[in-house]
Structure formats: C-alpha cells, structure tokens
Amino acid sequence: MNRRIARTEKEIARINIRGVxxxxxxxxxxxxxxxxxxxxxxxxxxxxxxxxxxxxCGKSTLLDVIAGFEQxxxxxxxxxxxxxxxxGPDRGVVFQEYALFPWLTVYENIAFxxxxxxxxxxxxxxxxxxxxxxxxxxxxEARYPHELSGGMRQRVAIARVLVTDPKSLxxxxxxxxxxAQTRSLMQQELLAVWQRNQRSVIFITHNIEEAIxxxxxxxxxxxxxxxxxxxxxIDLPRPREVSSTEFNEYRRKVTHLLQH
Amino acid sequence: xxxxxxxxxxxxxxPFAFPTYIIGPVLVICIWQIASSGGLTDPRFVxxxxxxxxxxINWIFGVSENDQYAGxxxxxxxxxxxxxxxxxxxxxxxxxxxxxxxGWFRSAAQLIDPVVQILRPIPITAWxxxxxxxxxxxxxxxxxxxxxxAFFPIVVNTAAGVQRTPLMLVRAARMLGIxxxxxxxxxxxxxxxxxxxxxxxxxxxxxxxxVVVAEMIAVKSGLxxxxxxxxxxxxxxxxxxxxxxxxxxxxVCDRLLIFFSSYLMRWSRGx
Lengths: 260, 271
Prior knowledge:
By secondary structure, chain A is an alpha/beta fold. Chain A is built from 7 helices and 10 strands.
C-alpha cells in the first residue's frame, strides 16, 4: 500500500484519495468499463506529483474526479479534509487543449476567475497585471487566443488559474502539444512558479523524462482498469540534470515499470 | 518569370484593380438586352434592360408624370423595409431567447422542441389565411408572417450552437468559480454566437421573401404590393424593377448583418 507515503513525515496531506473507483457505461461497446480501480493516494501541501501511464489508463479520469468534473463511483476524495463535490477555484485545472475563452482577450481570460468570484476592481486589476508579468505575457494583454502560439496560450491558461491563487494545480498533459524547446522552457517556468508559492501539483504526462524532471514522486498507473502500479520518489536535487547518471537510473526504472 | 497572381486590372495596365465581380451581372444584362431588342422575346413580356432602367428611374424620382407609379418608389421601399425590420426584430428576439433555453435546458427542449419541429415544415404561405383573419389587411399580418418565417432558422441554429458549446469551456468556467446561472450569459451565449448569426442570415433572407408574399396578399403597400398591382396592368418593367429593388435591399441587409457580426465576433478568425 502506498497510502502512507507522503513527502515528509510531518506533512499533513492536502489531497486525500481513498479507494476511488470510476465506472463508465461505454455506449459504443454497450458495456460497463472500469476506468479506475481502488486508487489510494495522498498529495502533500507543497508536493509535485506526476502521474504517468499509457493512454487509456484512466489518468485523465482520475484528474476529472479530483477536479470535481466527474463523480467517483466509489471511494472518497478530500481536499484539506473537505469532500469534493463540484469543481472550484481551490483546484486550478490546466487542460491540454488550453480551453481558453476565444472571445476574450488575454487580459480578460486571466481576469475571468476573479471577475466571476466578484473580486472588486482595483484589486482584480492589480492581480491580473501581476500575473501577466509573472508568466511573461506583458504586451499581449489585448490579443485574442487565436493570435497566440501554443506556448503562449498555455501561459494564459496557467496564469488564468494561478491568479485565483489555488491551493492545488491539476494539470492534464499541459505541455503535450508544445515543441520540445517550448516544452522545456515551460517546465522550468512551472517549477519556478511552484517553488515560489508551494502549491500541491498533480501533473499528468505520458513523457517519462518530463515526469522524472518535474515530480517529487512519479506515480505509474496500469492500463485499464487504472490502478496504481507503483509510486517512485525522485530523490534528486533541483534543478535536475536530465543527462546525469542518477536521472538515467530513474528513467530506466520508470520505463521498466511502464512496460511490465 | 515569376508566377505571381496579379489583379485582373493589371492586364489592361490600369492603375486600379479591375472589379471582377461586375463581369457576371454585366454579362447577364448584355444577353438580356440582345435577346429583348433582337426580337427573340416579346418586349411586352420581357422589356429590355434600358426600358426597365428608365422606368425604375422614373419610379424613384418621378421625372415624367404620365406614369401612375412615378415617384412612389421610396414610400413602397420604406414600407417593405419597415415590415422586414420589425418582423425580423421580433423573430430575432424570440428565436435567440427560445433557442438558448431549448439548447441549454434539457427539460425545455423536451417540452418545446417537438412543437417547433412540427410547425417548422409548414410553409409560411400556409399561414396567410390565418394571418389575414386574425390581423386583417394591415401591417400586423406582414409582421406575423415575416416574424414566423425568420423565427424558425434562428431558433434552430441558436439551439444547435448552444448544444455545441465545447465541454472544456464549460468545465474551465466552473473550475474558475463561475456561479451556475452565469454560465449561460458568460460562456454558452458567446460560444453560440457564430451559429446565432448563421440563423439570423438565413432569417433575414426569408424575411425579404415573406415581405413580398405578405404584401401581395395581406397589405396594400410595399414593393410586393406594387408587383401584384403592376401585374394587372401587365407592367412587366415595373415588376422587374420591383424584383431588383427587393434583391438589392435584401443584399444590403445581409451585408449589414455580416458587418455587425464580424464586429461582434472580431475574436474569431476570419468568417
């Protein structure tokens, strides 16, 4: 059982997942499909957890359940001791396909959450402008999403959730659509943001190197039904060097876990 | 030699690009003129373009007084346009709001959609007797017929646009803490806007069709009324001028709608 492995012993976990299963009715195959089975997991207050698994292993389903988009068929999910019933701004979600509002400018997209949460104007503006600077979008405030590159769109998507100051970040293959160079840059910027504010991050990827580079722990999932195969703590100092012997050691280990 | 595409006008060495889109209409008018003045058709039934043009000018400006239609164009065009605008405004207001409700609330769809789907295939002309009995030979009949005709494409397209709202955008908004009742105005409505305008363009086109129908039968003024009136005097020149007037006014309305929609949807690529 991996339930009790937190990053350090004295930390109380922020995200508590106990015995979560998720069943779907697949209309195409007209049968019940077990997407997730008995997931037990704790994620610490400042922990960066990466989840890796083959496509269709239910890793996105797990994230949807934690985000509150889907209800678990069994088990419970608690954030800071409170059960998850619906999506909320305490859990910022970053989608692979950005999901920006195409009719809003960069500024308006980033201000969306604060506006909907009725944060009054002078404060809202200050926070949005601060965040625009942090993610490096100064000068692009008035652009529409279709005028931006993939990397910039993902910056907007990240800024849009960071500006509401969520306690946890749920990221579903956020950099999968980016080219290698942009991806590497975004990884470093994400780490910088995470280290500054110490949030819990759950980051889904199918890229082994990305999982090891980013994660305090790497959770490997089995193919359907999705279960936790193993959780590998990554004991490497940051910033990590992807070409180091130790890094390669982890790479070999995770690759082995994925294949067997 | 570089095979770059140049504007047509450069062939003639003109300093400005040749407006190629006028070639088609000019060609049609030429064939018409030749057919008519060459004796291929009876000029009483197909008057030549020159005759139509002079009649049209006289109809608009009243140059010569010995034509009963002289100088009356503006009031008829105004009446028709007014009916189209009022009818279309009613259709847009009802169609968009009902379409949003049908598209967004499943229970509303189950209640209203069957009614809409059964009424929709009925040709609007079938409503004429009902309209005349109910509203009389007055503007009300025209408003009713136009609004009803333009309503269906708007309501159907709006509902479809709402149902096609990307799930990810709804999830993103919920994750950002939107209050549930704000989803419709803040996310669903803008996401459906392109479909809404598609419905409106079909609707305004239908409105011009129906204003002619309504004016031929249910009111005593407007371009459609003039067409029917001129038919009794076999004034084909007036009828053609009225047809072209409807075509031009419909075209202007469509352009205005496109202009308005591309302003509202300046966030979208092209259109």
